[in-house]
Amino acid sequence: MNFFEHQDQAKRNTRRLVLLFLLAVVIIVITIDAVLLLLFGNVLSDTAGTSQTLSGFLTDNSAILLFGSGGTGAAIGLASLFRSASLKDGGGAVARQMGGVPVEADPKDPLRQRLRNVVEEIAIASGVPVPEIYIMEQESGINAFAAGYSPSDAAVAVTRGTLENLNREELQGVIAHEFSHIFNGDMRLNIRLIGALFGIMILAIAGRRILSGARFSSSSKNNNAGAIILFAAALTAIGYIGLFFARWIKAAVSRQREYLADASAVQFTRNPQGIAGALKKIAAHSQGASLTRDSEEIAHMLFGQGMRATLFATHPPIIGRIQRIEPGFREQELGEIAKRMLRRSRREAEREAAATQAASAKRAPFDPRTIIEGIGRPGWEQIMAAAALAATLPESLVSAARSTEWAPELLLCILLDKEESIRDQQLFAIARRLGAESETQVRYLMTSAMPIQPEQRLPLLEIAFPALKRRPVEFIHRLLDTVTEIVHLDGKIEVFEFLLAKVISLHLTDALNPAQSHTGGNRTLADQAQAVRDVIAILADHGHKESELIHRSYENGINSIGLEDLPMQRPTDWVKTLDMALDQLDDLKNKEKERLITALMETILTDTQVTTEELELLRAIGSALHIPLPLMSDRSVSRQL
User: Fold this and answer.
1) For the chain, percent helix, then strand, then coil, each to nearest 5?
2) 120 is catalytic
């Protein structure tokens, strides 16, 4: 399955989980009503000695039924809403609740630095913002998870045991596995499941509280004390019936998704030894993947089984996962692996901190199907190219990108115009909106580093994103207003300026409201035909200079998706037109978005040449449609004819 098919499957899984959850709630409500009628129904039933029908019995006890059904439904619903609200800040909230500690921008620990490097490389290769990075310092087992509603608010957390026991290849396999959950819509499903699970669990919690309180009142003259204790015991039991259903639902979805994520990690890295090695070390490690903290809520999100196997394990057997990657593996090999783990050392991590300076990789042809299949699944070539690109970034700019205090100024520095008179106006606007200190920092970045190359701009932004979203909400809005002003100061907007403004606005908006982040709609290309024509026309106009070639590339794009070939219309204000069109096209079905991206690539490839401007515009369109396009370069792609 490709990126779009995974997204559709995630939406289907969400609908299925909602139905199963509602079914579990209905069963719990019916059971609660039955217990209430059993304990208290006779008090209200007919005592005249005549036989009473079932309908009459239920009618006489309608107040009990109303109280039981309404109270139970309200308790589950309110508890679920409360837990979901506590996670509204996205993946970082989940990581912190599990004891995660953020990895600083410039860690001195070589193991932390290696983790940051691996996460940044895969993010850059994938075309998504770098997620927040956390370490669960108190956990010596080997485990990890990704959490969040969308790539804009995602967080990746690993245990200290993961850092200390895995080499770079194995760590890369684990992180690639977690990125597959980010791309495939699993995260959003998983974080919603946390809220639903808590709603069902609240019954067991309430039952235990009532039982605890009833012990102190059992010696009183309360005639209903016995019934109350029985009801509390029944409530606790019913709560665990709900938990049974929740674990069954989690296991039904999670087990298969883990196999898919393992396979995706192999595709990402082209190195099955990486993730297979990590799984082997979990199997050989004395603590395996176990966590000391209560991992019931996030068990379905973890890389490995975080708690002892229960009736419905959330993960497939570890040996089975290894053998799917390496069919010839035998369990007897774990003994030797355990011995090697005892001789582990940090020397490899320390060497890697100063290594990988120029890992240039041969890139695949710019073929629409290859790019589509690579969305959300960057290949080894992209990861190696990202590592090589990251190595070219000036250290001072990388440090600024990772710093909460300097990341906004780096963003503004990237946008400064080459013409001095325009640049002076931009610096004045920065001082007026953000203060003289921000202007001073921007000037310092201008003079302290080598000129920023075009291919370095977007990776720097992706690295800076975690630091940017840690700033106060009010400051982020002022920053977005400043970006809008300085890109308009020269009276024209370059494609990269549009790309940067669009990407930063989209991701920061999603990060500020993670639960509202968009995941696709139900419209078709035919429904949004004019918006499709506008986007293809703008891309054709920016990618070619000759009028005949512009019109031919427009026709290629339109014909590739079967729309009526109406004459091309050039918009007078391409920025406004493109903005409006992208807002409409974000409501497309996932398969329709796939067709659109394919058409846009056909538009670009009319002359078999790919320019930086075309790639930047394609990247902006992809970001606006919530499609993470993999790393591409005009110097490394061409079409095979």
Assistant:
1) 65, 5, 30
2) no
